[in-house]
Design a protein that fits this description.
Number of domains: 2
InterPro entries: Cl-channel_core (IPR014743), ClC (IPR001807), ClC-type_chloride_channel (IPR050368)
CATH architecture of the largest domain: Orthogonal Bundle
Membrane topology: Multi-pass membrane protein
Shape: globular
Order of helices and strands: HHHHHHHHEHHHHHHHHHE
Number of strands: 2
CATH topology of the largest domain: Clc chloride channel
GO molecular function: chloride transmembrane transporter activity
Strand content: under 5%
Subcellular location: Membrane
Number of helices: 17
Organism: Streptococcus vicugnae
Strand order of the largest sheet: 1-2
Distance between the termini: 37 Å
Helix content: 55-70%
CATH class of the largest domain: Mainly Alpha
Structural class: mainly alpha
Largest sheet: 2 strands, parallel
Oligomer: single chain
Length: about 400
């Protein structure tokens, strides 16, 4: 008989061994699914770039297909990340397995035809769906939440191959101010296994070593603090604008078919006029330009922000994190010369802190900085994140996130 497990208790040895075994399996499964999702997405994105003028006119029509798929599937699946949060908070009991193909295909279509969206939300949903299905085989208390956050961590790690950051992301994300510590061991194992699996299967990881040595004197401290506040404001603005735009879009056009059709047509025209798709897709082109010395326009970050919000607000599918990385990195390039700091360093600081501010996470972005740009930069990243995180955290891209009151 497995000992019951409460939030303030440890695993029994028997429960721990069983959960560890399940975590290995979850990590392998999620790593494989993330690899298929991620590699196909990259292929479709490359195909879009080569055939942009032929694909972008159909963005609105493809949107109709996406809405149709969601209308015909389990109504719970339409909540997306919201459903994951509801299960974690005990408001819903399960995640329908139909979410796996539904969110995957809808996101592929969004990217193939030029929408501006991310991919992490999909990976987290995939990981959560797969992992949560394991909870029915365990009888200890809180098994539902433990396996949910384990899957969230594995999904994030398998896609980005930043397993430490994935662990802290899943620890922080459900309830602001409360870490999901009972799941620490299984989510760590699942994250590292998922990351290793996707890497072994050939999924690409973005990394760029940034080598700076800044004296932490009063001048540098003040500049890092001010950068953190600016990046924090931008992340908060993204989250607030996304919530407002989704609500306003429904008020203006309540019918989801009309909303995504006409919104898609308008977006296709905008994407076509603005440098033939510079702001379509994930935003990895802006990230690559930010760290390779290529042209970054002073308005790149703002247009990527507005067009990602518009894409998601009218009903297209995908995550927000990679566009947030692109927004932060391109804004960092603009701010670097103003603040008299190395361009690559400020771009890296923006990359992590705009994401952190928009998701109300503190530890996860710092470790993303370490795993992507080098752990030697952790003291600087921590200072930037302290001030980015200090701002009003009323808004989050995850509207289901709860705040622990003290």
């Amino acid at each position: 008989m497995v000992k019951k497990l409460k939030d303030n208790q440890d695993y029994s040895y028997g429960a721990l061994l069983k959960v560890i075994g399940a975590s290995f399996i979850i990590g392998i499964l999620v790593g494989c699914v993330d690899t298929v999702f991620g590699r196909v997405l990259l292929l479709l994105s490359a195909f879009r770039v080569g055939h942009f003028n032929y694909l972008i006119p159909f963005l609105g029509l493809v949107g109709l297909m996406i809405v149709f798929f969601y209308q015909k599937a389990d109504v719970r699946a339409s909540k997306g990340m919201g459903l994951v949060f509801e299960v974690g908070q005990g408001k819903e009991k399960e995640i329908p397995l139909v979410m796996l193909p539904l969110v995957t295909v809808a996101t592929w279509l969004t990217h193939l035809f030029g929408g501006s969206a991310g991919r992490e939300g999909v990976a987290v949903q995939l990981g959560a769906t797969i992992s949560h299905a394991f909870s029915k085989f365990f009888s200890f208390e809180n098994s539902s939440r433990i396996f949910l956050v384990t899957g969230m961590a594995a999904g994030f790690a398998g896609l980005f191959q930043t397993p430490l950051a994935a662990v802290f992301f899943a620890l922080e994300i459900l309830v602001l101010g409360k870490l999901q510590l009972p799941a620490l061991v299984p989510m760590t194992i699942a994250s590292f296994v998922a990351s290793a699996t996707s890497h072994a299967l050939g999924l690409e990881k973005f990394s760029h070593f940034v080598n700076v040595s800044l004296p932490l004197n009063a001048s540098v401290f003040c500049r890092l603090a001010l950068l953190g506040l600016i990046f924090g404001l931008v992340g908060n603005a993204f989250a607030a604008l996304l919530a407002y735009a989704k609500q306003k879009a429904k008020e203006v056009m309540d019918n989801p078919y009309y909303r995504i059709l006409f919104g898609g047509i308008l977006l296709s025209l905008i994407f076509l006029m603005l440098y033939h798709g510079r702001y379509s897709g994930l935003g990895t082109n802006l990230i690559e330009a930010s760290f390779s010395g290529k042209d970054i326009y002073f308005y790149d970050w703002l247009l990527k922000l507005l067009l990602t919000v518009a894409t998601l607000a009218v009903g297209f599918q995908g995550g927000e994190v990679t566009p947030l990385f692109a927004i932060g990195a391109s804004l960092g390039v603009v701010l670097a010369n103003i603040f008299g700091l190395p361009i690559e360093f400020v771009a890296a600081a923006g990359y992590i802190s705009v994401f952190g501010s928009a998701t109300n996470t503190f530890l996860a972005p710092i470790f993303i900085g370490g795993e992507v740009f080098g752990f030697v930069n952790l003291p600087y990243f921590a200072l930037v994140m302290i001030f980015a995180y200090s701002l009003n955290r009323k808004y989050s891209i995850y509207t289901g996130q709860e705040v622990l009151t003290f």
